[in-house]
Design a protein that fits this description.
4 helices; mainly alpha; 76 residues
Length: 76
């Protein structure tokens, strides 16, 4: 099972946490709290990572991610 997981993940880069991602998370957190829209802490980490690396997010959970200003959100 572990080998299957490793094979599935192999083509995708692993993006490490860093201080810039933490800063971005804080910005997102403050913005959604100010709007009274706090939800999905994990989604905010994903959004912070995507913004820091200049990526968008592909998701079926557009409601959460569309709250993040500047984040490109695509659906599948």
């Amino acid at each position: 099972m572990h080998q299957d997981w490793m094979q599935l993940c192999r083509p995708y880069p692993i993006l490490s946490w860093d201080l810039e991602i933490s800063w971005r998370f804080g910005e997102i957190y403050r913005a959604v709290v100010a709007k009274g829209q706090l939800r999905g802490g994990n989604d905010m980490w994903i959004a912070a990572t995507a913004l820091t690396h200049g990526f968008g997010v592909v998701t079926n959970n557009q409601k959460e991610f569309r709250r993040v200003e500047g984040l490109v959100v695509e659906t599948f």
